[in-house]
Specification:
Elements (H helix, E strand, L loop, with lengths): L1 H4 L4 E3 L2 H4 L22 H5 L15 E4 L11 H8 L2 H10 L7 H18 L9
């Protein structure tokens, strides 16, 4: 945030909302190995790329970025599992104004993604509709 306030352009990517190499569940024994931390789908969706403290510098925020460091991920399917469905939540956060975002409506749209992900063979983490 300091970069935008200082007049520099930037991409918002805090570990609190955008690090997809963190566990998706608090039950780490049921998850593939991860770097640490817990980042559930709901937390990704709650991300506000332009927080109130940056409102005067919103034009400096060029977008968002999801990160996934793969040192603990041995296969492509494990990378997909860690990225999805959180990447879908971050995409909606990036493209939808805050006043139009709704967790309930997102969940309904998310359900429509499951058949597509299945059809193209993405190894996503299952979620509750």
């Amino acid at each position: 945030m300091g970069a935008a306030a200082a007049g520099h352009d930037g991409v918002m990517s805090p570990n609190t909302h955008c690090y997809f190499d963190y566990y998706q569940s608090e039950d780490t024994a049921a998850e593939p190995p991860a770097i640490g931390g817990h980042l559930p789908l709901e937390q990704v969706y709650s991300f506000e790329p332009v927080p109130p403290a940056l409102a005067d510098h919103a034009a400096r925020v060029l977008g968002v970025q999801g990160n996934i460091w793969t040192e603990y991920m041995a296969t492509e399917s494990q990378v997909e599992y860690m990225a999805f469905p959180r990447a879908l939540a971050l995409a909606e956060v990036a493209w939808t104004p805050a006043e139009l975002r709704s967790p309930a409506h997102f969940r309904a749209r998310l359900a429509a993604h499951r058949p597509l992900l299945d059809r193209i063979g993405v190894g996503y983490r299952s979620w509750q509709d």
